[in-house]
Amino acid sequence: MNVGKVSKRVEQVFPFYVMDIMEKAKALEEQGENVVHMEVGEPDFPTPEPILKAAQGFLEKGDVHYTKAQGLPALRKKIARYYRDEYNVDLSPERIFITPGASGALTVALASLIDAGDEVLTCDPGYPCNNNIVTLFGGQPTSINVGEEHGFQLTGQLIAQAWSKATRGVMMASPSNPTGATVNFDQLQNIVQTITEREGFLISDEIYHGLVYGQRAISALEISDDVFVLNSFSKFFGMTGWRLGWLVVPEYAISAANRLMQNLYISAPTPSQYAALAAFDEDTRVILNQRRDEFEQRRDRLYEGLESLGFVMMAKPQGAFYIYADCRLFTDDSYAFALELLEKAGVATTPGKDFGSSEPARYLRFAYTTSIERIEEGLKRIKTFLAERGS
Amino acid sequence: MNVGKVSKRVEQVFPFYVMDIMEKAKALEEQGENVVHMEVGEPDFPTPEPILKAAQGFLEKGDVHYTKAQGLPALRKKIARYYRDEYNVDLSPERIFITPGASGALTVALASLIDAGDEVLTCDPGYPCNNNIVTLFGGQPTSINVGEEHGFQLTGQLIAQAWSKATRGVMMASPSNPTGATVNFDQLQNIVQTITEREGFLISDEIYHGLVYGQRAISALEISDDVFVLNSFSKFFGMTGWRLGWLVVPEYAISAANRLMQNLYISAPTPSQYAALAAFDEDTRVILNQRRDEFEQRRDRLYEGLESLGFVMMAKPQGAFYIYADCRLFTDDSYAFALELLEKAGVATTPGKDFGSSEPARYLRFAYTTSIERIEEGLKRIKTFLAERGS
C-alpha cells in the first residue's frame, strides 16, 4: 500500500560482510563441520557470577519498571567513582547517561551534535557503525586513513590535514576495533588540542578500556571535560547480551542527552542496570582481571602463530581482542581469502572491508574470543591450508 | 574544547512537561506528602510470574550473549502465531523484528522510511515522541487535529485533507495515547485505502492492543501486508522495564530494518527476549486477562468519578489506560491546573500540552495505572480541592 521504497538514508547503510561469513559458518556447522570462530567481536566468557546474582536478586521482587531516562542514580554514582579510581578523574554523575549498549551512547552523542551536512572525521580502519550512524543523521562521515604507517591510530596532524570548513568533530577509539592499537597520553592530548583549536567535538570510544595489556588505557576525560566518552558493559565487564553502556557528556549537552534518552529509549533495560550494580564489586574485578590475563595470553599465542605462518604483522596490539593481520603474501583479496579459509580450513575471520576502504583487501581481523586450544587448532588448520594451497 | 553547542536537531526535541510534574511529586514525597499518581503511563503490576521464571531459568546458565540482530527466531515464531490466533493474520517471522521497546521499533520504522524534508502526518493529540523522532531524522511532522469532534481518532478524510506534495506517510495509534480512542475495522480500512491511493506509508502503533475493553482491537495487518506495525511487551504483557517490543515490516523493508538493527542496537536485550518467550503461554495469559479486567473496572470508576466532578467527558475510551478529561469548566490552562492539583490536592496528572498543540490547555490525562483504592482517594481529593477552590 505504499511506494514500496525504503529511504535513501538507509540505502547508504551497508551490511556487514562478516554476516556472510557467519551465515556460511552456520551452514557448515549444520552439515556437521567443525568451525573455529575467530570472527566474533564478543567475549566467549559467561556473565561474571556476581553480576548474574545481582540480576537474579533484583528479579526475585518482580518489579521491573522503567528507570529514570538517564539511568539508575546508584549506577551512575558507581561509574563516577570508577573514573576517580581508574583515571583519577572527578566526574559528576549528572554527566553520565546509562544507555542501551554503547550503540545507544553513540546514537545519543551524534544526535546531540550533528546537523544535516555536518562533516565528522572517522578512522579507517574503524568501527563500521560510526560512519553508518553519522549517515543516518544526515551527516557526512569522512574517513581518515590511519593505516599501518600511522600505527593504526589517529594523530593531531592527521586531523589537522583532514579538517574542512564543514567539519564539526572527530570520532576515535583507543583501543581500536579492528586493530587493538592504542594512543598514549601525549598522543591523545595532541588530538584533543588539535580539535579544541578548531572548536570541534571529540567522541572518544573507550569500550575496550580494561582490556589493555601491559599498560593503562588513557581516557579523554583525563585531558578535557568537554568531550563525549562512550563506554560499555559488554567487553571488559562481559555483559554483551545485557545491552548496557554509558555516555559521558559535557555540561552543555546534559539536557539534550536527557531528551534524546526519553524519546529514543525511555530508559536502558532495568534488569541490566541492576545487574551492572555488581560490575564494580571487588569479587567481580577478580574475575575480570583473570579474564584480561587470559586474553593477553591468547593475544600472544595468536600473534606469534600468525607471524610464523607468514602473515605480515603490525606492532603487537596493546588492547581489545583483535589482531588485524596483513595477508598480502597470500592474496590480494582478503574477502575471497576469508571465504576460502572458512570453506577449506574451517576457520572463520572478518574481512578487512568491514572496517573501511583504505586497503581493506590486505587485511583479516582475527578475534581471540575463543580458547587457547581453539586458537591452536585454528592456527594448525591455517598452516595445513596454506601448505596445500602452495602459496 | 568545542563549540559547546548542541545540534539544531536536538533543540527541536522538546522535554515532556510531565517530567516537571513528576519531579515536583517526588519533592513533595520527600517532604513526607502522599501523592496519588495518575500521571504515569506504566502499568503498576509486577512482571507476570511465568515471564519472570523464564528469565530466571535463562540466567541460571549465565550465557547472556548477543542474539541475531533481528531477534530470537523462537520469539519471532511465537509472535507470528499470536497474529494467527488473535487476528487471523498469516505473517512470516521474517517480517518481524524484536526491538528495544516500541521506541526501537519506531526509530527503525522511521529511519527506514523518511529522508530529510519528508513530511509525516501525525495525530494531535498523540504520542509526543512520534513528532520528535521524525524531527530527529530530518523529517517534517505535520499534526492533524483529531480533537473531540473527530472522536480523537484519524479518518481517511482528515488524511486526504492534510496530504501535501511532501507527504510520505502517516503515523497513528489505536488505542490512542492520550485518549484511549480506537478505530474500528471500517475506519481503519478507510485510512489504509486513503494512504494507498496516495502511495504513502502507514506506521500503525498497536502497543495498547490487548488492553481493549468490550471489543477487539483491529490490526492494520488485517487490512494490508504493506504496513509497518509497532507493538510492545510493555503494556498488555506488563514488561516495561525489560525494554522489549517488536516491529512488523513489509517484505521490501526487511533488509533495511536488519541493517538498522545491526547498526543502532546490535540486538534487543537477551534476558528480555528469553523472558518474553513465556509471554504467550496459557498461564501468563490468565494473569494478563485478569489484569485487563482490573483495568476495565478502574476505567469505569475513574470515568464515572471525573464526570460527576464536572469534567467534560468524551465518549468512554475503549482501550489503553488513560482518560483524557476536559477541564474547561475549571481552568483555561490545564498545565497550571495540573500543578495546582498536585500541590494542593496531592494528585499527579499529565497536562495536555505533552500531546500536541490543538487545545492542549483544555485537557488533562489521567492514567489508571494505580489501584481502585488510590483512584477513589484521588477522586476524593480532587472533589475537596474543587469545593475549596470554589470553581
TrEMBL record, chains A, B:
Its cofactor is pyridoxal 5'-phosphate. Residues 34-382 form the Aminotransferase class I/classII large domain. Its EC number is 2.6.1.-. One of its GO terms (molecular function) is pyridoxal phosphate binding. PROSITE patterns: AA_TRANSFER_CLASS_1 (PS00105). It is an enzyme of class 2 (transferase). Gene3D superfamilies: Type I PLP-dependent aspartate aminotransferase-like (Major domain). The keyword ATP-binding does not apply. GO terms for biological process: amino acid metabolic process. The keyword Acetylation does not apply. Keywords: Aminotransferase, Pyridoxal phosphate, Transferase. PANTHER family: AMINOTRANSFERASE, ASPARTATE AMINOTRANSFERASE. Belongs to the class-I pyridoxal-phosphate-dependent aminotransferase family. This is Aminotransferase. It comes from Cycloclasticus pugetii. The lineage of its organism: Bacteria, Pseudomonadati, Pseudomonadota, Gammaproteobacteria, Thiotrichales.
